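Hi support team,

I've been running sequence recovery on a batch of backbones for a student project. Most finish fine, but this one hangs at about 90% for roughly twenty minutes before it completes. I'm not sure whether the input is malformed or the queue is just slow. I've pasted the structure tokens below so you can try to reproduce it. Let me know if you need the job ID as well.

Thanks,
M.K.
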């Protein structure tokens, strides 16, 4: 595996810390800025909306750029908006900074995924994807809990400063390791945008992207409100929040590692099993959230299933879209973050409706049911004729 792929994972670690760390900072942000808990949760949704909008736009706008230049520009913007977020006393400015930071993060993700896959042979594409996504899981293990500790001791702003500082080594590493050209396809004529869009909106890819959005919606729905669930329903003290986030991240790392090994060989079985287990897992968390032991046991398991399934779905999209070298990573990012937008919003609605702090976990289970229905409907609609080989349904 080229060292540059691991450098991309390092940069994603810093950005993943920012994307996920609000789950341990919501109460502090809400109190400091005098907004409701659900309004603070919308900071996560704003970031996800920026990712959804930014992924295709930034991928298209940077099509002709050298990959190193694109990665450095997106990362520099990301650092700048975190400095703004750490300094502002305004909820509106913080919300806007999350959106702009997400635009930069989306551009980085889209370029990083295609760059990593272009650096390796076909048999290692799943592992390369897992290394990049693995940066997020390491963020969950180390960065997000550290952000929660910083937020508890020195206020939520200190976590924003930490993300900006941690991003700087990634800038230097990209300068030294990422090729300055457009990658392995340098010198080749770029694929027309119309052809890329045609490849990505075909009948095989649409259900994969929709499934990915629903699976990630389920993940972000509960994860965004994990801190109030644990402190106000499970009865754990605030000191357990970083521990719980680390457990989720550790499970996520295991899931990504397993998916990187098997996603290329058995993607359908891996995704189908993960989706079924996630449906049961989110429902189990909702039922057992009052028990600290059971809740803490389920958290790493759910992290493993969520990120293992998500990694396998990303690998599936990249594998099914060889005709979209620029936009395949962007569409994967968009689908991922459509779920990250839907999840906190749906969980916030459930909280505002007075359904209790377990409600986001029930919403997560419902979203997984919908994902299973999409997969089942797709499989039924593509049932092969006699003598015809079955395609790679139900997820693409």
């Amino acid at each position: 595996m080229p060292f540059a792929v691991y450098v991309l994972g390092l940069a994603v670690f810093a950005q993943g810390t920012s994307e996920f760390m609000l789950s341990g900072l919501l109460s502090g942000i809400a109190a400091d800025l005098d907004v409701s808990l659900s309004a603070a949760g919308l900071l996560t949704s704003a970031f996800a909306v920026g990712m959804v909008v930014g992924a295709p736009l930034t991928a298209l706008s940077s099509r002709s750029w050298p990959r190193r230049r694109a990665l450095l520009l997106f990362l520099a913007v990301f650092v700048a908006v975190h400095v703004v977020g750490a300094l502002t006393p305004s909820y509106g400015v913080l919300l806007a900074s999350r959106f702009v930071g997400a635009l930069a993060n989306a551009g980085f993700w889209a370029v990083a995924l295609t760059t990593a896959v272009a650096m390796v042979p076909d048999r290692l594409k799943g592992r390369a994807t897992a290394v990049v996504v693995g940066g997020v899981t390491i963020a969950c293990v180390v960065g997000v809990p550290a952000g929660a500790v910083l937020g508890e001791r020195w206020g939520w702003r200190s976590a924003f400063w930490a993300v900006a500082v941690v991003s700087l080594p990634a800038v230097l590493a990209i300068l030294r390791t990422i090729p300055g050209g457009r990658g392995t396809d340098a010198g080749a004529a770029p694929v027309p945008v119309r052809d890329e869009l045609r490849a990505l909106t075909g009948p095989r890819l649409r259900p994969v992207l929709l499934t990915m959005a629903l699976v990630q919606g389920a993940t972000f729905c509960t994860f965004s409100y994990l801190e109030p669930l644990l402190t106000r329903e499970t009865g754990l003290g605030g000191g357990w929040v970083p521990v719980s986030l680390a457990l989720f991240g550790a499970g996520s790392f295991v899931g990504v590692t397993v998916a990187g090994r098997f996603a290329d060989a058995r993607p359908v079985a891996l995704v189908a099993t993960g989706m079924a287990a996630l449906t049961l897992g989110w429902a189990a968390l909702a039922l057992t959230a009052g028990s600290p032991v059971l809740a803490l046991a389920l958290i790493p398991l759910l992290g493993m299933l969520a990120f293992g399934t998500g990694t396998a779905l990303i690998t599936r999209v990249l594998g099914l879209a060889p005709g979209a070298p620029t936009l395949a990573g962007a569409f994967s990012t968009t689908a991922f973050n459509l779920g990250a937008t839907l999840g906190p919003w749906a969980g916030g609605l459930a909280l505002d409706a007075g359904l209790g702090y377990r409600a986001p976990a029930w919403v997560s289970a419902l979203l997984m049911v919908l994902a299973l229905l999409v997969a089942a409907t797709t499989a039924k609609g593509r049932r092969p004729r006699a003598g015809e080989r079955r395609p790679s349904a139900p997820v693409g």
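--
Follow-up from support: It reproduced on our side and the slowdown came from queue contention, not your input. The radius of gyration is 20 Å. No action needed from you.
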